[in-house]
Amino acid sequence: MNVLVIGRGGREHAICYSLSKAPSVKTVFCAPGNAGISDVAERVAIEENNHAALVNFAKEENVELTIVGPEQPLAEGVVDVFLAEGLAVFGPTKKASIIEGSKSFAKDLMKKYNVPTAAYETFTDADQAKSYIQKQGAPIVIKADGLAAGKGVIVAMTLEEAITAVDDMLVHGQFGSSSAQIVVEEFLQGEEFSLMSLVHEDVILPLELAQDHKRAYDGDRGPNTGGMGAYSPIPHLPRNLTSDALETIVQPVVDAMIAEGRPFTGVLYAGLIMTTGGPKVIEFNARFGDPETQVVLPRLESDLAQVILQLLKGTKPEVVWSEKSLVGVVLAAEGYPGKYEKGLSLNAFEQQDQETMIFHAGTEWEENKLISTGGRVLLLATAGGTIQEAQQKIYEKIENKNTAGLFYRNDIGHRAITK
Questions:
Q1: CATH assignment of 2-96, given 3.90.550.10, 3.40.50.20, 2.60.120.260, 3.40.50.2300?
Q2: Where is the ATP-grasp domain (predicted)?
Q3: What spatial distance separates the first Cα and last Cα of the chain, rounded to whole Å?
């Protein structure tokens, strides 16, 4: 069969990589893709927001399944357009993708259906938000209500940081309309982890757990980013954690979306934290996580396309996972997540070796040379018998590369090793 993936980042590269290994898939198309994706898929020069052109392409090329990667086209209703044309597509409708598109919607939903999450209040007035923060104290979490490319969350360790975040979002419009409303949340202590589930209405297939590293610098310091690396599985967390999270969080939310007239199909990403009272929700996303996808999907030994098609027919598929551990390290442009330079030479990463998976995020070809086009540029991943073994191997690989103009964390996976 022919499969189309919509998007251009590291997450989409990992999806295409997995599909390219699926026995049932003849051709993988990616619109618009990036430099690295061209190794595993045919790139299509159509932007993610050009829904009509994407639908026409899917029809012309007899695409039997389309997978939507990024959140923006989901929020803009690309799935609705595909469904209206009778095309098989994996992703939530515009009504269902609001679980990521509005943090206040997600929080209100969880409150209504008794899903465990941090205490919160929602604000559009800066003075009211500041007054609430002064009463609550720090640390405290400030979130832009709408989509902000993974950068709309400030974990303020001091009242001064929290007040600045409120001003940046509500007064100065840091994220445009996305921060015209903010959610102020209780700071939760505990171990964070990511549980992605493939969902079709009331059928749920949980994927293997992963742990992301959000902070820019070693030791979980510095500003929040879209993710500086990830690993899977998480050996030091309880074995029954997935089943507990499914029972108390994922299933109730999936049922709630149906009850609210917003049935969910696609990837429901639950960003969770293990507290003394059990797992609680930090956030929901309506698509594969990035960079978690880059360390979870390579562990999937089943045919991804067939798994999704079976799910779309209302059947929970059986899947096989590799026992190996994966560690993935993001190489980002110096200055990220603030201002950074584009056009960095990446010729050291043009050739892959058999042991290292290189997932491209912000890359392109320019005059037959590989250059950077984004803040998060590449993710390098490798497998090992344990997290420690995989970690050692991937850092040896990176240290042998020319990383001029790039930076990376040296401690991805440290929690699994120090526990």
A1: 3.40.50.20
A2: 107-313
A3: 45
